[in-house]
């Protein structure tokens, strides 16, 4: 019974992650096409480009997750082992991408902060600024999570067939919580506090257009906070397993099998939420969907006209 439940949970996570990869590739292709081939406004172009710093991170993390699920599947079915020299580095890189996932949302919040509070500094709203910032955050993530390697916290999980940090390794788990959740959430809170204070001190005679733009940016930022809040709620499961591990002295046998579906739902939910919360991306997808619905109608109309002409000639 245990193996059946574990097998099903792994399959569920694998299917969700594969769907996430397909969705992200679809969104990336459409976004890149519009950036390269369409005459977008500079403001819309920057907003879309900032969003594009999130999707590759989700995609890369999900690809690693898919490889984990496949290894688990092969291990369950054929009892294969994957404890190779690359096992620990891949597990470490997976955590780095997970950390970058939260930093990417910070970049979204920072972009809204710069548009509202520091609108005079145009370089803070440029695409290349956020590309450079993402690279700096990537290096920072590698450095912050590097103690996991020195502590040998990332080990091969014999029941799951990949390398990750066990819940019994208290120091490693707490450091992950601090690096992946603690730092990003603290920065997000400070950004939101700065925006709230700035808007409260705004003069009453502010131009209507400026005020409306600020309110739109604030609404988007609040949606980002809601998304992050949902992500934190989904992160409660690891905390529960950590407490259980400290009480019993060993990992719950289904711990990682239960956590991965939540992580998979987090990734696909974040991808869709970002699409819905970003009007520019949402408009592009709806436009493609509308054109897809129109094309068959036009083709059918053309065929009908040809048939009428043929009948008339006869």
TrEMBL record:
Q: Which keywords, in A-to-Z order, does the entry hold?
A: Membrane, Transmembrane, Transmembrane helix
Q: What is this protein called?
A: G-protein coupled receptors family 1 profile domain-containing protein
**TM ranges:** 6-34, 46-70, 90-106, 127-153, 173-199, 220-247, 259-277
Superkingdom assignment = Eukaryota
- How far does the signal peptide extend, from start to end residue? none
Keyword Membrane recorded: yes
């Amino acid at each position: 019974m245990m193996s059946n439940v574990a097998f099903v949970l792994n399959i569920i996570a694998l299917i969700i992650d594969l769907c996430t990869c397909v969705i992200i590739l679809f969104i990336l292709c459409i976004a890149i096409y519009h950036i390269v081939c369409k005459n977008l406004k500079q403001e819309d172009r920057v907003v879309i480009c900032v969003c594009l710093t999130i999707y590759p991170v989700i995609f890369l993390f999900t690809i690693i997750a898919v490889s984990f699920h496949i290894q688990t599947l092969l291990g369950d079915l054929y009892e294969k082992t994957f404890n190779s020299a690359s096992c620990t580095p891949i597990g470490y890189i997976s955590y780095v991408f997970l950390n970058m996932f939260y930093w990417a949302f910070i970049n979204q919040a920072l972009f809204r902060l710069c548009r509202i509070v520091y609108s005079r500094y145009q370089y803070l709203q440029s695409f290349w600024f956020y590309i450079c910032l993402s690279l700096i955050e990537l290096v920072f993530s590698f450095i912050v999570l590097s103690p996991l390697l020195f502590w040998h916290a990332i080990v091969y999980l014999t029941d799951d067939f990949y390398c990750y940090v066990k819940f019994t390794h208290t120091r490693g788990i707490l450091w992950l919580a601090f690096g992946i959740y603690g730092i990003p959430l603290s920065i997000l809170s400070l950004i939101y506090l700065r925006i709230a204070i700035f808007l409260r001190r705004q003069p009453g005679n502010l131009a209507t257009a400026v005020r409306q733009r600020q309110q739109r940016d604030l609404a988007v930022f609040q949606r980002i906070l809601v998304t992050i809040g949902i992500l934190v709620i989904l992160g409660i499961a690891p905390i529960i397993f950590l407490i259980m591990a400290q009480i019993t002295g060993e990992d719950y046998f289904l711990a990682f099998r239960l956590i991965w579906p939540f992580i998979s739902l987090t990734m696909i939910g974040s991808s869709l939420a970002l699409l819905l919360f970003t009007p520019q991306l949402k408009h592009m997808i709806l436009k493609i969907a509308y054109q897809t619905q129109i094309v068959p109608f036009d083709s059918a109309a053309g065929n009908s006209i040809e048939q009428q002409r043929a009948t008339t000639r006869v």
